Amino acid sequence: MKSILVTGGSGFIGSHLCRRLLAEGNTVYCMDNLYSGSRRNIEDLIGTEGFTFIEGDVTEPYDFEVDRIYNLACPASPVHYQKDPVMTARTCVLGAIHALECAEKHHARVLQTSTSEIYGNPLVHPQTEDYWGNVNPIGLRSCYDEGKRMGETLFLDYHLQYGTDIRIVRIFNTYGPCMAVNDGRVVSNFVVAALKNEPITIYGDGSQTRSFCYVDDTVDALVRMMEQDDFNGPVNIGNPDERTIQEIADLVLEISGSGSLIIHECLPVDDPVRRKPDISLAKEKLHWAPVVPLEEGLKRTIAWFRSTMK
Length: 310
Ligand code: UDP
What we know:
Layout: E1 3-7, H1 12-23, E2 27-32, E3 51-55, E4 68-71, H2 78-83, H3 85-106, E5 109-115, H4 142-162, E6 165-171, E7 174-175, H5 186-195, E8 200-203, E9 209-211, E10 213-214, H6 215-227, E11 235-237, E12 242-244, H7 245-256, E13 262-265, H8 280-286, H9 294-308
Parallel strand pairs: 1-2, 1-4, 2-3, 4-5, 5-6, 6-11, 7-10, 8-13
Antiparallel strand pairs: 9-12
The chain binds uridine-5'-diphosphate (UDP).
């Protein structure tokens, strides 16, 4: 059993990860500044033996004597990370440095959650880990995209310069229970609108694609990557089942039985046209592939939002 720090532990993916690590008998320190995470996501864990919540910000140095650090802290929805871009860039860069410094001091293994956004608007499809990406350095998404790219650079540099025990994963679009109602990302926006019988807003003509991974599959990959011993990454974590945004809207309407209308608004600047992970490396190194099909994951997600929005 290990002592584990999860930064961003009360966020969407972080809270699922904390729950899983705790269920496996580990001691879990969950640190979050509650900017986009929520106490509600971890309410059931507070008071559980082995679980500690710390309200803290990764832009400040921290010190936990742990065996493992999962560095998840960062707003990840474009709406949230663009609201305060300087804060986002600081969280990406200082957050990476502070996780690495803490790991270095305590000889802990540290896993960086990077993102498919480091590929930008990709010119290679599907995206393999050896693709360097097509990123605008001065656009609305840059604070996150470039911040996460710098995060990867720092992880590699600490590893090469100081021998820090690092892991890097690139998480593609993930969805599931515990997404915030105001998260702003496509699945939660569509589900919330459908359940309120309000219009579903597709940005652009809906032909842009994404590949959506159910959160339990994503968390399983994170733990596998952390606990394997001979591969630092980066590795893509996502579901290669590529769909158009129009298809997602149609599926949400069908599964929820909603009568919401679909309306269209302008596509945001620098919105990637296509995104799909090549997960050959994850299959080979982690013996991992997602097991929850999109329709099943959406059913579970819609059921969760239905019960939480009552
Ligand atoms: N999108 C949309 N309606 C929404 C929210 C998002 O049509 O209410 C589109 C968005 O323009 C993008 C895709 O859905 O093409 C995925 O957006 P999201 O913000 O979930 O994440 P991204 O993959 O762009 O980071």
